[in-house]
Amino acid sequence: MKPQYSFIANENSAIKDELQKKYNISRREYRRIKAHGQVYINTQLQKATYPLTKGDKVEIYIVEEPNMEPQDIPLDIIYEDEYLIVINKPGNILVHPVHEERTHTIANGLLYYRNTKNENWGIHPIHRLDRETSGLVLFAKTSYIHKMMGESLEKKNINREYLAVAEGNFFKKQGEINLPILDIPVAKRVDPEGKEAITLYKVVKEYKKYSLVKLKLLTGRTHQIRIHLKAVGNPLVGDTLYNRASKLISRQALHAFRLSFDHPITKEKMTYTSKVSKDFYNLLRVL
């Protein structure tokens, strides 16, 4: 297991000060290090408040213990390293536990997978997919990497592209949907008082009563694609919240097929794609 934080002290100082200079950690993260971290200074275990001398080698390990039950759930792992893991999520499963549903999520499966490898990394989703949306979702293995990737997401440096089957044919075959979304419980809606929400779209193929559409999020509002498609008169097939159930597919026809970002440590450009799930493929065959 590699340390979450590792550095050489540049001067006589406190560990907290060095961490803030080198990693820009929050006060909350420092409290977590004090409570759960194992701090080694020149290979000797010390307290997080131990004073540093210039040249000291500091390594900090944090025991990551997610508050959930490990479960043997099949995982389609697209990519993994010591910092990140990319999962191809099937439809009809949550990314992580919520208050009323603590089991049978991708995160529960990741905890089981981690434990079978006798490893100790955390499970921190960078972004989320709705239960019924299939496709690529990114997790960080430490809180520090989670913080870095969260900042990348806010700066729009994580690109997420989707395939969707929408009802009807689009008047414009390519364009931008720029409609603010009001974040209210359950069913959100387009509203002038809402937050900025921008979705790019391009019609890939037209059918008699449906369209296969490629979409790219420029913002990340909850249910953004679903709300925007409804707003332009082409609601998502199978979306029971913003449209209606479909006899052609048992969930909403939305798949996150491409994910790209700069690696937080190596700075390498990472791009991953996934094929549509079997139920999505079968839907396209019968249109």
TrEMBL record:
GO terms for molecular function: catalytic activity, acting on RNA; pseudouridine synthase activity; RNA binding. The keyword Cytoplasm does not apply. It catalyses: a uridine in RNA = a pseudouridine in RNA. The active site is at residue 130. Transmembrane segments: none annotated. Its EC number is 5.4.99.-. It is an enzyme of class 5 (isomerase). One of its GO terms (biological process) is enzyme-directed rRNA pseudouridine synthesis. Residues 83-230 form the Pseudouridine synthase RsuA/RluA-like domain. It holds the Pfam family PseudoU_synth_2. The keyword Transmembrane does not apply. InterPro entries: PsdUridine_synth_cat_dom_sf, PsdUridine_synth_RluA-like_CS, PsdUridine_synth_RluC/D, PsdUridine_synth_RsuA/RluA, RluA_PseudoU_synthase. Responsible for synthesis of pseudouridine from uracil. PANTHER family: MITOCHONDRIAL RNA PSEUDOURIDINE SYNTHASE (PTHR21600), RIBOSOMAL LARGE SUBUNIT PSEUDOURIDINE SYNTHASE D (PTHR21600:SF44). This is Pseudouridine synthase. The lineage of its organism: Bacteria, Bacillati, Bacillota, Clostridia, Eubacteriales.
